[in-house]
Amino acid sequence: MSEPESTRTIRTDYLARVEGEGAMYVRVHGGAVRDVKLRIYEPPRFFEAFLRGRAFTEVPDITARICGICPVAYQMSSVRAMEDACGVVIDEGPIRELRRLLYCGEWIESHSLHVYLLHAPDFLGYPGFVQMARDHPRLAEQGLQMKKAGNALMTLIGGREVHPINVRVGGFYRAPRRSELRALREPLQRARQTAQETTTWAAGLSFPDLVAEPELVALREPGRYPIDAGRIVSDRGLHVDPRGFGEHFVEEHVEHSTALRSRLRDRGTYLTGPLARYNLNFAALRPAAQEAARDAGLGPRCDNPFQSIIVRAVELVQATDEALAIIDAYEEPDRPAVPVTPRRATGYGATEAPRGLLWHAYAIDENGTILDARIVPPTAQNQLAIEEDLRAVVQRHLSLPDAELTLRCEQAIRNHDPCISCATHFLQLTVDRD
Amino acid sequence: MTDPAAALVHIIGVGNELRGDDGIGLEAVRRIRAAVPGTPPEPIAVSARCGDPVGLIDMWSRAPAVVLVDAMRSGEPPGTIRRFDAGRDPLPVVSRHSGAGTDRLPVAFGAAASTHAGGLEAAIELARVLGRLPPRLIVYGVEGRSFEPGMAVSDPVRAALASLVRQVIAEARRLVLTAAAVPRQATLRRPVGTRASRMLRNSRVA
């Protein structure tokens, strides 16, 4: 273990085979954290260039390929932005409900992967889910069962399990039949039950102290927990339409990351994701989700990023319960999509990916050819907030041996379920002594 | 196309076609689909999979024998094809959470998908722990050269495609023939043997 006056370097270099996809570097000197750098993998930059010159109708299929875990988020932000450009609004009716239902499937899939298989091992003291599953097979099976329920929604509405192909600008290529949806009720009811149990289980874990300092940013829509639409709000008074994102949020390039980091203009670091959604929209949670939160001893505000595992479990209750409600009320639409005619304009779309706000903007010409594209993914937005967490965690736990401190850092990164969750398993620690 | 739930052998191509050579598994199953009728009497199902590898566990629970095809990096020349009996032994991948100096992987599978939920080997080992491996699980790895976003499958890797497709189809047909012998070493909880034997008798592949 190092002395306070020595220099400690905590570094993770993701494997050479995926250079630059995600890495962490922390330098401690003289008993204080001097430097924290998180390098993240960010495929959207390539896609922005790739999209130029393509037809506006191609965005949902192309952007779905950005992420194997949250393709629906990319599809939904992109089609909303294109519809915005073309002057089409789909804010109610069966097409909107189907979009929410599909998105619920993605939340269920993504959150259950993270809660049960990626984050739980940190709390239970295992290096990974394989080792955890040996001692806690039921927990791993619950994760797989929940994921399967999400998969079933994705497969039916999206056309296949990952990278759905049934989403189009204006709606869907095919709307499911009532009977097809009703067949999903039973697995979803079981998933809701599991999510409720999981919320209670998660609340019983032990949580390191940490208070999220950044401004919290999420979508908000009257009467509904934010998933596929809403205005961008914060806990410090921000309240803007997705169109106004560019005025309030700035992206900056930093040397150590291929990604652009976001900050709030003149205000600084902000955080998106489950913690922000929950704190800004507790009242809009469905009664079953509020009840699960209360049973877990979670009030309407949760400020400890380590407790995001409980909030994700609450959101699993929310997503399964809402999916069931949508299925029960579903009326087959007369047609699966509304016509969308291109015009020369710029459109904006923002939705809540499982890991946070995902904002898209597209400029198209009168033929619908894409002239410019901008995609701001949640992990890039959370980069500064994650670095701040790391700084606080390292400072607070300086007395821990290197190996434990490294694990604590990994856990702190995974609090935000970044697209580098696994990359941080490659953490390699070196200690330099002056 | 044969339903995986009704097949004796399920061939699954794994990868991301927008990540250079990581698309080889998907390209292979496209060719295999064209070559294997996929309808009785051929009890072979063919699927593609991108995204997190953990989802494979549900896919492969449907057939008594599974063949996975994925890109890999092991230091061999690009296009090298390697076969692993993953049902018998873990893939030769050093633990990703090993100590200093041992984080080199002799073999790494796939590209970007592994940043989320561990790689193919983690999904296989999770299934092994939970008793959810198919009775036979064979992995074909194809050495990739570049996994850059937006690139096509590189020439040396593409050159291996014909041989890869031949080997995987031959493997699948061998597995169909031996599927009846599977129950003796089955690790799957459900009784696949009866169904496998019945299907084999009904098929004319033999």
Please outline the helices and strands.
The complex is a heterodimer of chains A (434) and B (206).
Chain A (H helix, E strand, L loop, with lengths): L6 E7 L8 E8 L2 E9 L3 H8 L7 H5 L7 H15 L8 H31 L4 H7 L1 H22 L8 E2 L2 E2 L5 H5 L2 H19 L11 E6 L10 E4 L4 E2 L4 H4 E5 L6 E5 L5 E2 L2 H8 L5 H9 L12 H22 L15 E9 L2 E9 L5 E7 L1 H19 L5 H13 L12 E6 L2
Parallel strand pairs in A: 6-11
Antiparallel strand pairs in A: 1-2, 1-15, 2-3, 4-5, 6-7, 7-8, 9-10, 12-13, 13-14
Chain B lengths: L8 E6 L9 H12 L8 E6 L6 H5 L4 E9 L7 E5 L22 E2 L4 H4 L2 H10 L6 E8 L11 H4 L2 H18 L13 H11 L4
Parallel strand pairs in B: 1-2, 1-3, 3-6
Antiparallel strand pairs in B: 3-5, 4-6
Structure report:
The complex is a heterodimer of chains A (434) and B (206). In chain A, helix 4 runs antiparallel to helix 12 (308-329). Chain A has helices spanning 44-51, 59-63, 71-85, 94-124, 129-135, 137-158, 178-182, 185-203, 245-248, 274-281, 287-295, 308-329, 378-396, 402-414; strands at residues 7-13, 22-29, 32-40, 167-168, 171-172, 215-220, 231-234, 239-240, 249-253, 260-264, 270-271, 345-353, 356-364, 370-376, 427-432. Chain A is 43% helix and 19% strand. Chain A is globular, with a radius of gyration of 21 Å. Chain A has a four-stranded antiparallel β-sheet. A four-stranded mixed β-sheet of chain A has the order 8-7-6-11. In chain A, strands 12-13-14 form a three-stranded antiparallel β-sheet. In chain A, a hairpin with a 2-residue loop joins strand 4 and strand 5 (171-172). Chain A is of the alpha+beta class and 434 residues long. By secondary structure, chain B is an alpha/beta fold. Helix content of chain B is 31%, strand content 17%. Chain B has seven helices and six strands, in the order βαβαβββααβααα. Chain B has helices at residues 24-35, 56-60, 114-117, 120-129, 155-158, 161-178, 192-202; strands at residues 9-14, 44-49, 65-73, 81-85, 108-109, 136-143. In chain B, strands 1, 2, 3, 4, 5 and 6 form a six-stranded mixed β-sheet that branches. The two termini of chain B are 20 Å apart. The A-B interface holds A 14-15, 17-18, 21-22, 41, 43, 46-47, 50, 65, 68-69, 71, 113, 117-118, 127-130, 133-134, 137, 140-141, 144, 147-148, 151, 161-163, 419-423, 425-426, 428-430 and B 16, 18, 49-52, 54-55, 57-58, 73, 95-97, 100, 103, 105, 108, 111-118, 122, 125-126, 129-130, 147, 149-150.
